[in-house]
Amino acid sequence: MNHNREARAWQWGGHTVLLIYSAACILPFLLLFASSFTDDKVIMQSGYSFFPEKFSLDAYRYLWNESTDILRSYGITILITVAGTAFSLAMTSMLGYPISRRDLPYRHPLAFYVFFTMLFNGGLVPTYFVYTQVFDLKNTLAALLIPGLLLNGFNVLLMRTFFMTTIPPAILESAKIDGAGEIRIFYKIVLPLSLPILATIGLFQGIAYWNDWFNGLIYITNPKLFSLQNILNRIMLDIQFLSTDPALSAQASGSMDLPTASFRMAIVVIGVVPILLAYPFFQKYFVKGIAIGAVKG
Amino acid sequence: MENRKAGKRMRLLKTYAPLYLLTIPGLLYLLINNYLPMLGLVIAFKDVNFSKGILGSDWIGFKNFEYLFKTSDAYVITRNTILYNSAFIVLNLIVAVGVAILLNEIRSKLMARFYQSVVLLPYLISMVIVSYLGYAVLSMDTGFLNKTVLPLFGMDEIAWYNEPKYWPYILTFIHTWKGAGFLCVVYLAAIIGIDQEYYEAATLDGASKRQQIRSITLPLIAPVITMMTLLAIGRIFYSDFGLFYQVPMDSGSLFNATNVIDTYVYRGLMQLGDIGMSSAAGMYQSLVGFVLVLLSNYVVRKFNRENALF
Questions:
Q1: Which InterPro entries match (chain A) (predicted)?
Q2: Is residue B258 situated within a structural domain?
């Protein structure tokens, strides 16, 4: 009897706390959506609000007029995300597999070479000079793809652990007896057996590329090469950013005033919607991936 | 004899040549992305002059460091970095463990999954987007706080982006909002891994939920908590650049409360062109950061060899 009451109290208490926490996580997004559909003059008067006093699509109409830049940045983000994830998975598994082989001579020094990058790093200044002075990546798409993101020691070691614990050496042995070469074994046997870890690391790499604004901030000054996040970043500091494009502002000026306050929210909505829509589909793998990563590579 | 040994080694290398070949792109990338910048740390000892090239610039010994530590900046950025990270570590720990325990208690599987997805939502979005969410709430003229919440209490508008005193709270709140969901999933995985028999036995003995949490759940996930916390302490000298740069919108009047080592290095390099100071601060961070990572790992090892990085 007493236990029943205690159990019920826990359910009530748990739901209450978790509902409040969940609300805190969701409400800012609702504020964003609602505000993007609110008339600009109303926002100027009574601020961003959850309930649009006067519904308006002006912000989206303006966005539509300026869609060239936004569509291009979308294209760049998608290209970089797909290419980055693909290269990253290829390089991570190609490095993780050999150092997972217990029979490989010098595998310990190789693993240490990977591992040491997790302990010590040169930091921003020398990295910046390597990518701008030694390699001339400034204002190239490669600058969005390569620095910092392409491969990291943690993922390599995570993959190595997966190979070591789930690929039975006997399979490799018998393939070798059948006359298969190492490279063939790698992509015909090892990779197909490793889909779970490839999916997990691919998902996290994909999110990292989609969300990255840092490389664009330091290596890209040409707005034609901006990713979606960089466009958002620029508009935050300079709301006129899109309309300062001379060719566009000539057509747009006069025809429409910039609905500043609602436009700011509308542009984030189009930035955040793709990832929110995709989230339910990868949610399960995302949660699993976090647990795997924390348990250690 | 020598010959035969060399021959054997050649044969060995030949069998493994394809495997070594596979490692080349990755090793090359780490060389460029990680090892070259480590060597590049020497520019902290140079007076960088672009007309002479970086390698040709004059050596000036510890001058850059002398300048850096003479300014009050060095103190402010070190203090901010460490204090913020300490607050983050403590708060993250409390929120994440608390929420994980509650999530585990929820009987409705559907609701539990819903809560878990939702608390991870902030972790999924970029800091640029977070800065917009922050702006919607904090903006002087149109923010939700100034226009809706403060009037309810009859309070005046606050120029949030110009008042440093609020920012320690704002940044700590946002960091916890964004990051606690991640840790919560980690702890929940640990709690789910606990053998149910402990709880069954405890219930038979008449132990209350609270007693079970105190004497079963917490002690059994303690190793995971210790490991995650020590790893975070090892990284206490590094901060989330996006949080401190994007969310305060690079507002100059907030620097005293928002400047950390990472933002200082960035501004020195990209905005002020003060490469000497910037590289000195960067090297200071790299070295102290390295020592702290080694130390925290040493401590993790003492607790639990399994969980140590090395």
A1: MetI-like, MetI-like_sf
A2: yes
The pLDDT score that the predictor gives to residue A297 is: 37
Interface residue of A125, A129, A131, A161 to substitute, partner B, most B CBs within 10 Å? A125
Are residues B26 and B163 both part of a single domain? no
Q: Is residue A10 part of a domain?
A: no
Please check whether residue B147 lies inside any domain of the structure.
yes
Q: What is the domain extent for residue B18?
A: 2-44
**Minimum Cα–Cα distance from B289: chain A residue:** A120
Task: Domain count for chain B, please give it.
Answer: 2
- Lowest mean pLDDT of A14-28, B4-18, B99-113, name the range: B4-18
Which amino acid type is present at position A273?
Answer: V
A-contacting residues in B 63-92 (Cβ below 8 Å): none
CB contact under 8 A, B124 and A110: no
Contact yes or no for A28 and B133 at CB 8 A: yes
- Tell me whether residues B103 and A18 touch, CB distance under 8 A: yes
Contact partners, residue B45, CB within 8 Å, separation at least 6: B59, B60, B61, B62, B64
Q: pTM of this prediction? A: 0.91
B29 and B106 co-located in one domain: no
First vs last C-alpha separation in chain A: 47
Structure confidence by residue, pLDDT tens digits, B108-144: 989 999 999 999 999 999 999 999 999 999 988 888 9
Q: Does B213 touch chain A (CB under 8 A)?
A: no
Residue B188 sits in the same domain as residue B303: yes
Average pLDDT over residues A159-177: 91
A52 touches B at CB < 8 Å: no
Looking at the 3D structure of chain A, how many domains does it have? 1
- The reported pLDDT for the residue numbered B234 is 86
Question: Rounded to a whole number, what is the distance in Å from the CA of A61 to chain B's nearest CA?
Answer: 20
Q: Are B82 and B75 in contact (CB under 8 A)?
A: no
- Write out the residue range of the structural domain in which residue A194 sits: 59-295
Would the pLDDT of A98 be above 90?
yes
In a domain, B245, yes or no: yes
Identify which of A96, A88, A148, A109 has the alpha carbon closest to the alpha carbon of residue B34.
Answer: A148
Pairing, β B46-47 against β B58-59: antiparallel
CATH (domain of B287): 1.10.3720.10
Does B228 reach chain A within 8 Å, measured CB to CB? yes
pLDDT of residue A290: 85
Q: What torsion, rounded to 10 degrees, do the Cα atoms B288, B294, B300, B306 define?
A: 150
- CB-nearest to B33 from A17, A147, A275 is A147
- Provide the shortest C-alpha distance from residue B280 to chain A (in Å): 9
Residue B54 belongs to some domain of the structure = no
Name the phi and psi angles at A55, rounded to 5.
-70, 140
Same domain as B68, residue B36: no
- CATH number for the domain spanning A90: value is 1.10.3720.10
Place A240 in a pLDDT band, splitting at 50, 70 and 90: low
